[in-house]
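Hi W., the iron/sulfur cluster complex you wanted:
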Amino acid sequence: MFSDELTKIVSTTTSKIKRRLAWLPRSVPATAWVNLASNCASYALRRGRAGKLPSMVKIDVSPLCALACPTCLHADPAGRNRPLLDAQNFSSLDRIDIAKFAEIIEELKGRALAVSLSYYGDPLMHPAISELSRIAANTGVAVHITTHFSYNWSDAKIQALVESGLSHLTVALDGATQDVYEVTRINGRVDFVINNLRRVIEIRNRLGRSIPKVEVQHIRHPHHDKTERERVRAIADDAGVDHFITFKGVRYDRDGDLYNVVDSDAGGARSGTALKSSALPRCHWPFSSTVIKVTGDVIPCCMWREGQQYIDNGDTRSLGNVFDQPLSEIWNSPSYQALRKEVSNPSRHGKIGSFCEGCSYLYESTPRVGEFNEHGELVEAWTAQ
Ligand code: SF4
Ligand code: SF4
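Structure:
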């Protein structure tokens, strides 16, 4: 029994490491190793000052999406009685300017290990996504994209993405057939997704390239029957993907409605008492990574205050703007350093008005759906198989 458990842990860990290796550049310059080492040292020693730049950067190349998944900021608010969802405002012009993107990448060159080209939209909504990917890849940084991939794309367009130097592509596939898929991927076409998945791998292999590594991400939902996961896996295997990952979807039906990310909005009543310090800082994000929005605003993570980022006059609590000052200045600004102190010891340094105020990593709160309660149990109202 013990050896079974051990084998399982070793196999899961190996698979996770293999998956993440695809997020690393082919060759990491010494300066990027030094930067990573500085960030890790700051984390371990709870320093306010980190390395010169974050090691991983999410860049919101476009917050737009043609789908309307019920859990997302892009969900259709009609009849859902969620004013914050109603207030989301995604302008059709919200696509990052290529020259400004190039400036961000130029600053990251030789320091960051990877960029991920999304926050709360689908990166392929940017008409120049292959060019953006190429600009980033040409500096040696690893480039990652997550997409629903429900597009009617030509072979030429897929080939351009493959040839851009993209390192890693994650494709969300929630169901094997349209009837199942469209329950959560509203407006999506599963035939487009599967066709694109096959072609991206065929084209990559035909060109004799080893990247992008392609992964299918299957979120298990309560409406799936027990065979759904294996049906999706069979599609992924048939296409020849490099990785298949699956996890449980966070959905509930508390009031006869589905969970939406705005339900956890920081504006709600969940400040709670600040937690005491632990062996290591309670969150690694302010030491390792950052998020740059399409507006240039910098926020420390993609896991909190999402509902505030795209509304007019939202309480975004951004830490600066890369179109006004270098990211390196923002990354080690007094506000960022204060945030590192806060995640290192929230009960001493917790600050009203900070981005992290109220986050359950740092503050006691009633566990929300999708979080763990004091018994280590996942809070959910529906249970997927
Ligand atoms: S595909 Fe992603 S960004 Fe688009 S609606 Fe669904 S969850 Fe949101
Ligand atoms: S809001 Fe929470 S998850 Fe985000 S950086 Fe702060 S502590 Fe980490």
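The pocket of iron/sulfur cluster (ligand 1) is lined by residues 65, 67-69, 72, 74, 120-122, 148 (CB under 6 Å).

W.
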